[in-house]
Write a structure and sequence with these properties.
Distance between the termini: 70 Å
CATH class of the largest domain: Alpha Beta
Number of helices: 22
Radius of gyration: 29 Å
Helix content: 40-55%
CATH architecture of the largest domain: Alpha-Beta Barrel
Shape: elongated
CATH topology of the largest domain: TIM Barrel
Number of domains: 3
Strand content: 15-25%
Strand order of the largest sheet: 1-2-3-4-5-6-7-8
Largest sheet: 8 strands, mixed, barrel
């Protein structure tokens, strides 16, 4: 082809090397793919990978250079043990299409030479050069999607187009930028934004990779909000030595084992799943028509890729216009277009792991009003289908349960659910923080300002807990001015963060509740009321005290009686402390 590389650039290519970084399934710990990353660029005189590509772009040899690099990456990819079960993520520079010698079909020739199917290749495309002329990102995505390559949008969330790009390009995968993960356990806004992105992607049938995961906290949060895959130093740094790439990562598998959902929730989902027989993209349209002829009551067919991962649904109603007309039927059965027709007739469908919580499944379904159900995976592979009707029944059961157990004023779970939670926490080898909140001087406030304002104060504290404690916390209303919250500690590093969350609740309530007092009482810093003996007394303004117990995973003293006794005893101590908190650890 034209624009052949000079000897200088051929020598540079020989010196360059490829490192691979694993991308693993967040629910199984098994490897899903590797990303090819350029190495040894400093040895050929460049400060960064970007500088290399900027140089070949300036010399108008970007496409020629990139094809050679693709071949180098694909060749090395085939030396990884078990590569036949992996995908290779390769970063594309979207300026390629502006090169004068750009042409179709060259990647397929390389793949054929190394006996690699295009199913194994995923092209990563980012918005890095989108502001330049002749660098249309959507055009680059469309070009490779037209040729049935898997497409991932890299650095999602920090580019120029954002959700518009997601809507217009319909990628197979998005990779969440590291920006959203860094210190996410400390920033509720980041977690909210990340969850919103992940939920939207799942609703559109797009898989999500969290990129740059470096800590246990980031791992657990990514798992909690539904990311499908993770990549980063916490799993493994990029390596040029292919023998270091593992089939699975034991330290991740161990963490997954500690983070299982409640058994009763798993059973509730398991018993409602339909084990619908799937097809793959390798099946022909003749297979599809025969499927519907054999399964007379079937309305959908789950469609999988060669790795048994769901791609979407084929719905019978979408085929009717073709099946019931001779002309349309002949189009469907045309062997030359079988594969593309099947892929293009797919409807996106949310897919979620079976170990996801009921609340996550319900939220996902509620945000996808047009979906006919949710595809369920197990350890990354298709497992079954949860119909709309089944989800609605689960929602109905949950609503009845919550309504029965809720406090009528705050709508928070009540005492029975608190008891169940503590019982679960003491029965399992997991670390937890339990916290008993008691509003200080509430009776005096109630006597002076009335029961209606007392209820408003109760609602204020409930709202603060709901808004400022993230979804990993269980929050409940014991009754009156007593509240409860608890959270599982995934690791030791989380303990201080969770205690700071509780301290923040105390400070926020103490500050916000002042708005319920008259100006005079606020200036005085107290109110006058009668104590329990009927004597006049000054009472300080409302605050809240927290009795906290940290239950270590293997504690020998975590009986229900011990916990209840300690919480009650510490409540009195907490009221005397300057920060209104008393903490005990059960070792």
């Amino acid at each position: 082809m034209k624009n052949e590389l000079s000897n200088k650039w051929l020598q540079r290519l020989d010196e360059l090397d490829i490192a691979f970084q694993p991308i693993i399934n967040i629910n199984s710990g098994k490897i899903f793919a590797v990303e090819a990353l350029l190495r040894n660029y400093k040895e050929i005189g460049f400060d960064s990978i970007f500088a290399v590509f900027d140089k070949v772009y300036e010399e108008h040899i970007l496409y020629t250079f990139d094809l050679k690099l693709r071949e180098k990456a694909i060749k090395k990819f085939t030396t990884i043990e078990g590569y036949q079960d992996l995908k290779l993520f390769y970063n594309l520079d979207n300026r390629l299409l502006a090169m004068p010698n750009f042409s179709d079909g060259n990647t397929n020739k390389i793949l054929e030479a190394y006996h690699v199917s295009k199913d194994h290749i995923c092209f990563e495309i980012s918005e890095r050069h989108e502001i330049l002329k002749n660098c249309n990102l959507e055009e680059a995505i469309a070009h490779y999607k037209k040729d049935d390559f898997c497409i991932a949008i890299d650095d999602f969330g920090v580019g120029y187009s954002g959700y518009k790009l997601l809507y217009d390009s319909n990628p197979d995968i998005i990779k969440i930028d590291r920006y959203f993960l860094q210190n996410i356990e400390l920033h509720k806004k980041k977690k909210t934004m990340l969850k919103s992105i992940v939920n939207l992607a799942i609703q559109l049938g797009i898989n999500v990779i969290a990129e740059g995961v470096e800590t246990q906290e980031e791992f657990f949060i990514c798992k909690e909000i539904g990311c499908h895959y993770i990549q980063g130093y916490f799993i493994q740094k990029p390596t040029k030595i292919v023998t270091k790439i593992q089939e699975s990562y034991p330290h991740i598998i161990q963490l997954i084992g500690k983070n299982k959902r409640k058994q009763e929730e798993s059973y509730k989902i398991e018993k409602t799943i339909l084990k619908i027989e799937p097809l793959t993209l390798n099946n022909t349209m003749t297979d599809v028509i025969n499927y519907f002829n054999i399964h007379k009551n079937a309305e959908i067919i789950p469609i999988l890729d060669k790795f048994n991962q769901p791609l979407g649904l084929l719905q019978e109603r979408e085929l009717k216009n073709y099946i019931y007309s001779p002309y349309g039927r002949s189009i469907l059965l045309n062997k030359n277009i079988n594969k593309s027709k099947l892929k293009h007739l797919l409807s996106p469908c949310p897919a979620i792991d079976i170990n996801s919580s009921l609340s996550t499944i319900i939220e996902l379904y509620s945000n996808s009003p047009e979906t006919v159900g949710i595809l369920i995976t197990k350890k990354g592979a298709y497992y079954g289908f949860l119909t709309s009707r089944a989800i609605i029944e689960i929602m109905h059961d949950q609503n009845i349960l919550h309504a029965r157990e809720q406090n009528p004023l705050t709508k928070l779970p009540g005492n029975r659910m608190i008891e169940e939670y503590i019982d679960h926490a003491t029965d399992h080898s997991e670390s937890h923080i339990l916290c008993y909140f008691d509003l200080d001087n509430f009776k005096a406030f109630n006597d002076v300002y009335g029961f209606r304002n007392g209820d408003r104060v109760i609602l204020l504290f409930a709202d603060i807990m709901k808004k400022d404690l993230d979804t990993s916390f269980f929050i409940a209303h014991i009754g009156g001015d007593d509240f409860f919250c608890s959270v599982k500690l995934e690791n030791d590093a989380m303990q201080e963060t969770r205690l700071q969350n509780i301290i923040y609740i105390i400070k926020k309530f103490t500050n916000d509740v002042k708005s319920f007092y008259s100006q005079e009482d606020k200036e005085n810093g107290f109110i006058l009321s009668k104590d329990r003996e009927g004597n006049d007394k000054k009472f300080e303004l409302l605050t809240v005290s927290a009795s906290v117990i940290i239950i270590e995973a293997h504690s020998k003293f975590k009986s229900l009686n011990t916990i209840h006794s300690l919480l009650a005893l510490q409540k009195k101590v907490a009221k005397q402390e300057q920060e209104h908190i008393s903490i005990t650890s059960l070792l």
